[in-house]
Structure formats: C-alpha cells, structure tokens
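Tutorial sheet, problem 5. The two components below are modelled jointly, 223 residues in total.
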Amino acid sequence: EAGVAQSPRYKIIEKRQSVAFWCNPISGHATLYWYQQILGQGPKLLIQFQNNGVVDDSQLPKDRFSAERLKGVDSTLKIQPAKLEDSAVYLCASSGPLTNNEQFFGPGTRLTVL
Amino acid sequence: SQQGEEDPQALSIQEGENATMNCSYKTSINNLQWYRQNSGRGLVHLILIRSNEREKHSGRLRVTLDTSKKSSSLLITASRAADTASYFCATDAGNQFYFGTGTSLTVIP
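Model answer (structure tokens):
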C-alpha cells in the first residue's frame, strides 16, 4: 500500500512570496489533515477535510493560508504572502473508516522563508 | 492553547532501561494517541487508548489513561537505540485534534 505522498520535500522562498504544497493521501482515506510543525514543537492542525468538505480550520491563518481538496482526493495548501514565521515543516496526514482513528503521515515539506 | 503538555521535554537513558513519558491535556477527549517521530521524518502511530480504557499494551509499549486527572503515560520497556526519537501524545476530542509538545528520548547504546 502506497503511503501519503507530499511534494516538494524542501522549499526556500523570500518573504512575501507565495508557495504551494501538494498532498496525495492513501487511497480510500476520506479524511485529510494539514499540520504545521515549527522546530522543537508538536504539530499544529491547520485544516481537516472530510472528503472535499472542511471539518475544522479554526487554526488556519485565513488571511494568508488557504487549502483545497476539490475532488476529495489530493489537496493543496497555499501560503500567500509568506512571512518569516511560516518557516516550518508542513505535514499532511490521512485516515479512513478502517484505520481506527489512526492517522498516516507523509514525509512533510520543509519550508524556509528568508 | 489546548495542546497537551508532555513531561519531561527530554529524556536520556541507557539501552535496556525503561522510559516513561507523561502527557497532560485540558479538554474532554474521545481517545488519546501516541506517535513517534524520528529526526527529519513524518510521524508514526504507536497506540490509541479510548476514553473508557485505563490501560493498553502493545509489544514493549504500555499506555495508561486517567481521565479524571486528564493525563496519560507512555512506558517503553527494555529500550533500544532504535527507540531514539521524539514522542508525541495527541488528543482527539471529536472534530478537534491536538498534539502535545513532545518528549525527546535518547537511548544510549
């Protein structure tokens, strides 16, 4: 079974630029999560999708962050414009009806904002 | 923040010893999960304990949950160098999912 795929693995941008991350969850997983993990901290949930609907985006900074999952499969997270404090690893995870609430994580995208 | 707090922040032990890490949280939960993260990698699920359970075992892992104290502990017995990683608790309160701050475990061969 293929795992959660994320791209790119690394990204370096200047502040005020835009950036997008892509995630392809495990096949059949209806729930998709985006997390932000700042160095030395635990992951912080940014947004949770159930199929193509948003379940929770209470911690998403909506003035600059957006996410979509148009067809209920893969998802894109965008930051526009980026700030220095957005430097972090962005993790995507998925879960499904047979995973017993276990989330499967991708390798993450390490973003550096200069 | 509704994130859990983990204690200790860092733990260093000799191979073969047991490692215990604790997690405290603030809200009522449906279940609590523990994850491991090796340096530079994604998280891997270890074990889930439901709110109506008090103790659960999986291999060398033992998890306890005290909902009255809003706390959980993870015990790793007979530790190995390969157990070196960061360990996070995560609380599931229905539609809200929060990770703790993590414990960094170093197992010295």
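Marking note: The two ends of chain B are 37 Å apart (CA to CA). Full credit if you identified this.
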